What does this fold into?
Amino acid sequence: MQKLRAVLAASTAGSAAIAGMVANAPTAAAATSTSLCGSTYGYVGKHAMTKVSGKEGPRTGGYVYVYYSAKTKKNCAISKPVPELRGKAWGLGVGLHSPTYKDGESDGYARGQVYTRWAGPVYVKSPHACINVVGDMNIGAPGHVRAHYEVSKNGVHCG
It folds into this structure.
């Protein structure tokens, strides 16, 4: 995950292109996040952040929601905790990367970015190619992490 974070952080500069997505009907949880990406973005899918360490909290701590806009030709992602962990989660992070175009964005990984409600939105263009999606979060308190959650999906939402 650290290596992927470094790739995402290093790839935020530069330009990219599209990853065409077929938008599905939004779910109630996903629909609330679209305004964070913009009004032209439609829900594409979500990826569960599952527990990788710690004994407290549920198996799934949150989701990375992915959206696509035909108007901007970009994908967008936001990470959010599950309702049960709202107010308990911290250190939320999210990233999108196009391996084909070596472009991407991340949020929540820089010094001083200790998000508790959501991370993102982050955007990437990746024409006719797949994207990589990452996200993570903690529960507990800084210095006293009770559980850590992660997701890393490569080659998804191909357009």
Confidence is low (pLDDT under 50) at residues 1-32. Strands lie at 42-54, 60-69, 74-81, 89-98, 103-107, 119-124, 131-141, 144-156.
